[in-house]
Structures are given as C-alpha cells and as structure tokens.
C-alpha cells in the first residue's frame, strides 16, 4: 500500500490549483485516506478500465507500462525536483493514457523514488 500524506496532498494541490481534474483526483485520494492504490482503482473503473489485479499490483503495472515515457531524461530530472506540470501536460496529450490516472501514476513514481522506478529502464540502455 502506498500512502500519500495529507501534507503531500496539500503540496500537490498547490501545484495543480489550475487543473480541476487533478484537484478532483487529489480529493479522491484524500477520501481514500491517502491510499493511492485504492484511489487509482476507483479512478480506473470510472475511466472505463477493468483492473483484473490487486490494487497495488495494478497501479504498479500501469506505471511500468509508461516507464519509457516517464523516465525520459528531461522528465526524470523535473520529477526528481517535484516539478510535475510538464510531465502531466505530456501525459494528457497521449491518446492512450487515461488522463484521470496521471496524478496517481506520478505520485506513485515519486513515492517509489524516481531513480528506483527508472532503474530497470536504465539497465536497458
């Protein structure tokens, strides 16, 4: 289980004040007592996805599916500095990425540690 604290949620609210979708997602994460996987599962169902795994496995699999994009050096550098706006905007432009899941995926990557998350990708280079 990945828990996002109320302090972290407040921090991300300040980053996404002009993004109503992100604010709605942060509300849901807060309603789930910070349980990122539970919130992501609810959002996935709302987005028409049918997760067939346990919550923690499903969010991890979704994040790994987009690892090549998330771990591009420019995005990676920004994520390491908690700068998420450009990565969010990029994910929103990808037609196959469920936009409502951008916040949970990025929070998951940050909670795992950007370098830890991207390490398997680095091994392929």
From TrEMBL:
Top-level taxonomic group: Bacteria
Q: Any idea what this protein is called?
A: Uncharacterized protein
